[in-house]
Structures are given as structure tokens and as C-alpha cells.
């Protein structure tokens, strides 16, 4: 097995041959002070080609919200001159996006030797798939690899079940990598599984946890999109399925669930980064997850959907400002989870319902599973708050995962104490 892993790993070079380069492309940050400035950004988006990092859509733009967008090199000069003419405050958070993409990888040669087995590195899908197979073979009593379907491009999807197969009764889902460019999310799922299985029978807390809870880990939900971010476009978000009658590719999987589907925004525009698909569960990846959840719903108690960036821990609903029935409890758990998270490095998270903490989101996984009966459902936006955004350097994987682990353990310990 080791040989197989090494072969797969050795086949991958450290320098990634991106077809799409971002030389001299810039990322701007603006906090519009009033409606005029909001309208001006919307106008900019019609005369130049902007890729919004946060919020993800023009429809979410309101005064005083932080807006990060990426512009190509030619448009950047125009944007700077227009912003200066209008006297709108702005910052350029990346002067040269290509450089930031390359700097994401730790270049310390010393650390590269066994980098592919390290959890504090970013990994390609092939590496993650080989790793998942490897842990299921090496830890058969604790880990099983359950096939759940295929992606649009035919890649097999799996859930890694991690827990004591005999005693663990309550289930918690960790869903990572719905959005392709949010690499820290799959990195966390790998970290979690690795640390959990190594700590079993050594660390009392983790042993208790895995004896009671079965973790259902989806290391990468949007596999095709993730592969695309490694091979073609680092900034890709959606999956890779084509849309009828459009040259634009991809559906936002976290808008494709059957909950208030298509109720808001950019709904008919397949070129939008938040295109919800041609129908609820239209995507093979979404269908694979929803049928797995439906099959296991009676044992599932909590669902965690991990994203980046923004440092937020949120609970339903996203599609409405209506409060869920157990809102008080959710607020209490979120509050103690962010407190636990901050203990290690002082990292501050905000928390609350999705709709009021970030913005209205329809068709998301956490809202859908909540209404299916998984009443402790959370969306987590990991580090950071935009210094590196989607390009969090590898040296932040370990601290990010260590602190996030504390929040997950806090939520899990609540689940253990649930009566049924
Ligand atoms: Zn996301």
C-alpha cells in the first residue's frame, strides 16, 4: 500500500501547471459607504469583468459590507482610475494574484520530503483519494469507505465513516469542499480524520468521542471543481456540469439543495458563481449526498458544512430570517463552540443565523438537512477574514485545523449528551 501511495504521490509535481495564469491581476477591497457607492460597484461590474470573492453575488451588495473582488490586469488600471475619480476608498489586497497563488505553498525544501503524507499541506484530489483508501485499510476497525455515487465527470464519491463501529450510535456529518477554491475545507476534513484515528486509544477525550459518535466525513463534496482548481483555474467555485443553452459551466452545489430552491438571486444565469442549477438536486454530487443523508437520517444528529473564508459559525436558516424552532439551543452551542475555538490562538469568530450573519442563501445543505430532521446543523466559514482569503498559506493549515477541532469537539460533546 505504501508503495502505491508513494507512486501516486510521486507522480504529482509540486509546481502546478495552471493553464489560467493570474499575472498582475488584482484583488480589491471596498467597503461602500452608501447606496451611490454600492451602485458604482455594480456599474463597475457591468463595464469590467469582476470575480466577486465576497459577497459572492452583486445581489448581496449593501452599504457597509466588505466587498472583495478580483479583476484582470487590464481592467485593474481602469478600476483604479475610476475609483480615484469618484473618491471611493479602496485597498488592493493582492497586487499580483499569481504570486499569491504560488506563495500559498510552503517552499521549505526540508519539509517537502514527506509533504504528501502531511496533513499540514494542501493535497490534490488523487492524493486525497489514495489517502482515504489507505486509512480505511490501515484502520479497519475505525474507518470505512462508503461509496455514495459519482460526480458529473465520473469520479467516485465516498463518505469516510470514522468511529467505533460497535458502540458509536449518533452520527455527525462533516461536509468539506462544496466550493472548489476553498482549499482549507478539505484540508480540515483530512486533518480531522488523521488526528481522530491516531488519538483513538491514546487520548481519553477522542476515544470517548469515537466510541459514541460516528463521523460521516465527506472529504471533498465538489470533486470535479476541486480538480479544476488544481489543473486549470485556482479561483473556480462551482462544479463542472454544463448548462443547457449556455456556454457557462457549473452549478453552485450549495445552492442546489431542495430548500427554497431558486427563490433568490441570479437564478437564471448559468454564468453566475451562485447558479443554483436547472432544478433542485439537479446535480449528481448533490443527489449522492442527499440520498446518503436520507438513508442515514435516523442516526444523524449534527451536520457541519465547512467553507472559507470569514471566520463565522452559523446555523439555520439561510433562506429566511424566520427562526428555527431550537434557535436558543443552536445559539448556545454556537457561542460555546466559538469560545472553545478562540482558546488556542484567540481567533475571533462571529456566530448566528446564516441569513443575518452573512446574507440570504437559498438551497443550502445546512437548511435542507435541518428540515430533514438533523437539528444541529452548522455552516462554518474558516480562516481568515480576507488577508489571504481563498489563498490561505499552508503554514496556516495546522493552526486553523487545531482551533477548528476544538469547535467540532464542543459541538460533538453536546451531541453525545443528547438523550436520543
Ligand atoms: Zn463556500
UniProtKB/TrEMBL annotation:
Signal peptide positions on this chain: 1-15
The Peptidase M14 domain, residue ranges: 121-415
Cofactor names: Zn(2+)
Q: Does the keyword Glycoprotein apply?
A: no
- Organism, as annotated: Hymenochirus boettgeri (Congo dwarf clawed frog)
Query: What Pfam families does the record tag this protein with?
Result: Peptidase_M14 (PF00246), Propep_M14 (PF02244)
Task: Please report the name of this protein according to its UniProt entry.
Answer: Peptidase M14 domain-containing protein
Sorted keywords for this record are:
Carboxypeptidase, Disulfide bond, Hydrolase, Metal-binding, Metalloprotease, Protease, Signal, Zinc
Tell me which PROSITE patterns the record gives: CARBOXYPEPT_ZN_1 (PS00132), PEPTIDASE_M14 (PS52035)
Q: Which family does it belong to?
A: Belongs to the peptidase M14 family.
Q: Which GO terms describe its biological process?
A: proteolysis
Amino acid at each position: 500500500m505504501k508503495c502505491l501511495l508513494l507512486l501516486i504521490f510521486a507522480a504529482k509535481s509540486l509546481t502546478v501547471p495552471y493553464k489560467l495564469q493570474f499575472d498582475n491581476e488584482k484583488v480589491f477591497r471596498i467597503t461602500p459607504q452608501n447606496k451611490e457607492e454600492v451602485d458604482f460597484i455594480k456599474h463597475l461590474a457591468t463595464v469590467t469583468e469582476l470575480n466577486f470573492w465576497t459577497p459572492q453575488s452583486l445581489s448581496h451588495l449593501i452599504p457597509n459590507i466588505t466587498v472583495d473582488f478580483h479583476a484582470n490586469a487590464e481592467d485593474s488600471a481602469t478600476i483604479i482610475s475610476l475609483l480615484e475619480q469618484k473618491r471611493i476608498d479602496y485597498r488592493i489586497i493582492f497586487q499580483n494574484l499569481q504570486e499569491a497563488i504560488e506563495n500559498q505553498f510552503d517552499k521549505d525544501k526540508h519539509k517537502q520530503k514527506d509533504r504528501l503524507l502531511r496533513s499540514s499541506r494542501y493535497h490534490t484530489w488523487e492524493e486525497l483519494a489514495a489517502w482515504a483508501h489507505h486509512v480505511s485499510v490501515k484502520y479497519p476497525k475505525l474507518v470505512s469507505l462508503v461509496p455514495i455515487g459519482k460526480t458529473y465527470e465520473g469520479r467516485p464519491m465516498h463518505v469516510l465513516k470514522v468511529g467505533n463501529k460497535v458502540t458509536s450510535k449518533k452520527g455527525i456529518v462533516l461536509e468539506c469542499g462544496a466550493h472548489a477554491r476553498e482549499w482549507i475545507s478539505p484540508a480540515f476534513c483530512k486533518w480531522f480524520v488523521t488526528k481522530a484515528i491516531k488519538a483513538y486509544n491514546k487520548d481519553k477525550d477522542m476515544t470517548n468521542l469515537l466510541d459514541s459518535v460516528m463521523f460521516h466525513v465527506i472529504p471533498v463534496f465538489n470533486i470535479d471543481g476541486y480538480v479544476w482548481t488544481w489543473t486549470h483555474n485556482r479561483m473556480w467555485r462551482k462544479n463542472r456540469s454544463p448548462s443547457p443553452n449556455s456556454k457557462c459551466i457549473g452549478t453552485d452545489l450549495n445552492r442546489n439543495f431542495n430548500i427554497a430552491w431558486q427563490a433568490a438571486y441570479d437564478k437564471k444565469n448559468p454564468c453566475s458563481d451562485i447558479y443554483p442549477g436547472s432544478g433542485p438536486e439537479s446535480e449528481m454530487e448533490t443527489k449522492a449526498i442527499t440520498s446518503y443523508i436520507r438513508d442515514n437520517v435516523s442516526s444523524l444528529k449534527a451536520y457541519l458544512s465547512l467553507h472559507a473564508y470569514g471566520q463565522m459559525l452559523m446555523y439555520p436558516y439561510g433562506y429566511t430570517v424566520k427562526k428555527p424552532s431550537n434557535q436558543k439551543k443552536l445559539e448556545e452551542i454556537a457561542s460555546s463552540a466559538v469560545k472553545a475555538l478562540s482558546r488556542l490562538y484567540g481567533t475571533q469568530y462571529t456566530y448566528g443565523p446564516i441569513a443575518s450573519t452573512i446574507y440570504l442563501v437559498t438551497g443550502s445543505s445546512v437548511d435542507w438537512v435541518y428540515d430533514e430532521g438533523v437539528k444541529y446543523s452548522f455552516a462554518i466559514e474558516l480562516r481568515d477574514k480576507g488577508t489571504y482569503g481563498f489563498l490561505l498559506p499552508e503554514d496556516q493549515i495546522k493552526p486553523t485545523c487545531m482551533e477548528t477541532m476544538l469547535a467540532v469537539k464542543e459541538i460533538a460533546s453536546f451531541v453525545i449528551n443528547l438523550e436520543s
